[in-house]
Amino acid sequence: MMETNFSNPYPRHGVPTLIPEIVSVCPDAYDEKSVRVVGRVDHYDAFKCIALLSEPNKPSSSSVKLRVNTRLTDQADYIVGSQVMLIGELEKVDLSACDLADDFTHGSGGIELRARVSRCIDGLDYAVYCKGVDIWRQFNSDMNMEHSS
């Protein structure tokens, strides 16, 4: 009989994270972490449920891209050129085993977001969003310092 863990039945919250932070570090650092990401859809393959996101304030030719597994989310959110907010878990992927075109593996850093929540957020001021993330991080840092002393 399978054991069930009832101590925390809810999915983990997504920690606000920027795409370059994910892609620029070792895949082991973020493996299985729950994150919230904002990005612009550069490519989308509905048949394979794979999207490529880049930072909204960078040109789509930027080499920093995050590969997203969209199987659990609404396909209507992934219109090329639109901004989306995703919550999900990061996992390492073996890019040499991918059967996708180069567009879907280039620049992703060997990590993929398995999205479980998606929302189209066209019109979001990304610069203000980034400032909000910085303020949230500072607040959490201050709170952690208070609780540790």
How are the SSEs placed, and which strands pair?
Elements: E1 15-16, H1 19-23, H2 27-30, E2 34-45, E3 50-54, E4 66-69, E5 83-92, E6 111-120, H3 126-148
Parallel strand pairs: 1-2, 4-6
Antiparallel strand pairs: 2-3, 2-5, 3-4, 5-6
Organism: Lymnaea stagnalis
Protein name: CST complex subunit Ten1
InterPro entries: NA-bd_OB-fold (IPR012340), Ten1_animal_plant (IPR029146)
Explained architecture:
With 149 residues, the protein is of the alpha/beta class. Helices cover 21% and strands 29% of the residues. The chain has a five-stranded mixed barrel. A hairpin with a 4-residue loop joins strand 2 (34-45) and strand 3 (50-54).
Major β-sheet profile? 5 strands, mixed, barrel
Specify the helix fraction band.
Answer: 10-25%
CA radius of gyration is 16 Å
Walk across the major sheet and give the strand order: 2-3-4-6-5
Q: How many β-strands, per DSSP? A: 6
Short note summarizing the structure:
The protein is an alpha/beta fold and 149 residues long.
